[in-house]
Specification:
Number of helices: 5
Order of helices and strands: EEEEEHHHHH
CATH topology of the domain at 60-207: Hypothetical Protein Ta1238, Chain: A
Shape: elongated
Helix content: 40-55%
Number of strands: 5
Radius of gyration: 19 Å
């Protein structure tokens, strides 16, 4: 079975046996690479080891695996967010973000892949789109003069939590970048991603008529 796309649940994270192939299958957005799935379980990872796309065997506790595993966690949580009622424009954007996270994870799982500059250009464009959305949605929200407590409606609260997962994914990616080569645009994208998720949360809470709770200090 051929699977278009580049990462996510087909990361080596779940020990799926695969072959990396070049080309541009119809389902691929930019044809960076695609996978031919051989088996869901292989028993290869039963001793705590997994393989990167290039075939290198590493510990499942390695920083690289931990990093793209955290991206997978964020991606999965966005799936939970999408199960709730959301404005169509935000729902579409969250699905785009999920696809982005798959691709970023694939690059992290395959440090030797080409298309490094192409991926950087794409993430730069996406970061600009995030900034446009942040500016546009912020005009529809009360001016933020204090810290607010995470919460609100169900979907708004889940978006706040997704923001914290994005921050954790960013921290892991920064840590990896201090030891190995990581596309610098990835760091910028993840930094801006948490910002746009924060704005989404505020926007949804306003739409759901949930009043923001200001952080109150004890002093």
């Amino acid at each position: 079975m051929k699977v278009g796309g580049t990462a996510g649940t087909v990361y080596p994270e779940n020990d799926t046996k695969f072959k990396l192939r070049a080309g541009q299958p119809q389902s691929s957005r930019r044809g960076l690479f695609y996978l031919e799935i051989m088996s869901i379980y292989t028993k290869f990872g039963d001793k705590g080891k997994t393989s990167l796309y290039g075939g290198k065997t590493v510990s499942k506790a390695s920083l690289r695996v931990n990093t793209y595993g955290t991206l997978d966690e964020l991606n999965s949580y966005l799936g939970i967010v999408l199960s709730y009622k959301l404005p169509q424009e935000i729902k579409k954007e969250l699905i785009r973000i999920q696809n982005d996270l798959f691709e970023i994870g694939a690059f992290l799982a395959n440090p030797s892949t080409g298309k490094f500059k192409e991926m950087g250009k794409y993430l730069f464009k996406r970061t600009e789109e995030f900034e446009y959305q942040i500016d546009n949605l912020s005009k529809k929200l009360p001016e933020l003069e204090n810290f607010i407590l995470p919460g609100g409606s169900v979907s708004g609260s889940h978006l706040h939590y997704a923001r914290t997962l994005a921050r954790r994914a960013e921290r892991k990616t920064v840590e990896l970048s201090e030891k190995e080569k990581v596309n610098p645009q990835t760091l910028i994208y993840l930094n801006r991603l948490s910002d746009v998720l924060f704005v989404y949360a505020r926007f949804i809470n306003k739409k759901d008529k949930k009043k923001e709770v200001i952080w109150s200090t004890r002093s």
